[in-house]
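Residues pack. Consider this:
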Amino acid sequence: MPNNATMKATILIADDEETNREILTEMLAPEGHRLLCAKDGNQALDVIHGNPIDLALLDVMMPGKTGFEVCRTVKSDPDTRFLPVVLVTGLSRPEERIEGITCGADDFLNKPVNYQELLARTRSLLRLKEFTNELENAETVLFSLALSIEAKDPYTKGHCDRLSEYSVAMGERLGLPHEQCVALRRAGVVHDIGKIGVPEHILLKKGPLTDEEWVIMKQHPAAGERICSPLRSFRLVLPIIRHHHEKLNGTGYPDGLKGDQIPYTARILQVTDVYDALTTDRPYRAALSREDALLIMRAEVARGWWEGALVDELEAYLIEQDNAMQGRDLSHPA
């Protein structure tokens, strides 16, 4: 009987030998999979980019791009990096195995392929892919929820996208590890997801909040952390969500952290958050110019709210973006 968990899986079989493709197809067909074939590395990439593939079985020695090269391309592309890749090879030297591992291969099968081993490995990797899909679906739901909150207020349109862009750019400029830059990108979208629990008459109020309303509003970072905490992939995102309204002098919320107690990534997001709020229209004032916004932020740095070095870094990034835009305009005259 076919495994119900893998009935609808789509598997790519890439091998330049037709006989090898036929053998693997015959072995896997009884499992109920949809099987796609490619006869070289270039065709394999075309199939991967044109279809929702769940597992790729790649011969190593193929014309054009080798299995190593295809694997490296797949694993370096954000859209396909979670695709499980099995290298099917007759190569046995340790350095060849090491190259496969370096390329990001998830598993190996030796030729001639053993039927039971093939089934065991494909079933295991397809279960892993299913878990990955569920994780991606959960993230998508959270992102959609966060954007629906943003959409309630016309003054915050595009705020999440801008925060993601600014924060990731800052993280990269400051040399943060890739996983922390990913956390900043995600946090840019979901940092205010806890506002789902704030009543709309408070969330959209045009005038100043009362003391009682502020008590409710200040609960949203902790609420956002609770909403996102079941996702283990958000481990580095949670501190940003919780602490992006803290201030260096301890007057922020929800925990009143001071200085280095505030996670560095949260300090990065809070600076970009403040800048974006100042430079976009609000019910009570028009958007400020960059110069005026930075002037206000430096005054707040002097009050002990934000980290001055991060404000400097943000300004340098914005100037670089302006220069790059001017360069593009000059290279494409009307």
Remarks:
- The chain has 14 helices and five strands.
- The radius of gyration is 25 Å.
